[in-house]
Amino acid sequence: MRCLVASKLKRRPRFLTVRRVRYLSPHMIRVTFAGPELEGFPLGHEGANCKLVLPRDGESREAFEAYFAPDAPEEKIHPVRTYTIRSYRPVELELDIDFVAHGDEGPATRWAQQAREGSFLGLFGPSQPKITEFYAEWYLVAADLSAMPVAEATLEAMPAEARGVAVFEVPSKEDIREIKAPAGIELHWLVHENVYQPSVAQFDFVTSMNWPIGVVQTCIAGESSVIKALRGYLHNERKLPKKDTYISGYWKIGLVEDEHQKMKRAEAA
Questions:
Q1: Domain ranges (residues) in the chain
Q2: Backbone conformation region of residue 44, classed left if phi is above 0, alpha if psi is from -120 to 50, else beta
Q3: What pLDDT score was predicted for residue 5?
Q4: Hey, is 155 helix, strand or coil?
Q5: β-strand 79-84 against 3-5: which pairing, if any?
Q6: Beta strand extents in 35-180 (DSSP E only)
Q7: Helix, strand, or coil here: 97?
Q8: For 144-182, what is each residue's pLDDT tens digit?
Q9: For 245-263, what is the mean pLDDT?
């Protein structure tokens, strides 16, 4: 999952408390946060990024919150991870964030796998949603597990009459599950067991499709090498306008988030 190490953050995050945790599939955990800290959380930001500030192992909530006091010394002690707002329910004051469960090598994964009612973390954001207008005649959605939250949020926001294809790449058949989508969106699941080996499954699927006529919008995100290949195909061969294509690398095999973000900035320069 996407990662970076926190420098001292000048703003105080929302301090969120876990209400419940459940596995959507063997490799996807949904954590539901709840409480008065979510009063005023912006509506309509499903699919937007947020920054999660993670407590250190064994750190008390009091010590964690004290770190963000105005007079606290500046230290680099808490990891920060970029995640996606999955859903917000203002009446219940509940917020869902989905985590990929892929072992214990990352602090966010470890935190989610150990989270229980009463667990806590900090949240900055959210940013703006990735797609705010739906005007296409046809839609292409593609995601691995890391990008399933933005893909699902996008499908749920589409007009009921939307048509297109959604392709999801997961590490096991057990990760295939029912998701909400307009009736005109064809859902396809690909299984790629070793997520730490590059995959060409999504690229092969997209490049072998019968391409539609008319305006196409995309919501595509996932591992950087897959995204790079798909971006080249869509922009250079299919000539899709960049304004119609949300396509973003969320992580890269072998890199933690700060390294991946540095790579993305260099490529964009």
A1: 3-124, 138-268
A2: left
A3: 45
A4: helix
A5: antiparallel
A6: 49-53, 79-84, 87-89, 94-100, 120-124, 138-144, 163-170
A7: strand
A8: 999 999 999 999 999 999 999 999 999 999 999 999 999
A9: 73
What is the end-to-end Cα distance of the chain in Å, rounded? 24
Q: Which two tokens stand for residue 255?
A: 């890199």
Best CATH choice for the domain 3-124 from the list 2.40.30.10, 2.30.130.10, 3.40.50.1820, 3.30.70.2750: 2.40.30.10
Contact yes or no for 118/164 (Cβ under 8 A): no
The CA-atom distances, in angstroms, between 172 and each of 11, 193, 226, 253, 260 are: 40, 6, 18, 18, 25
Question: CB of 249 within 8 A of CB of 224?
Answer: yes
Kindly report, residue by residue over 114-137, the tens digit of the pLDDT.
Answer: 999 999 999 999 999 999 999 999
pTM of the model: 0.90
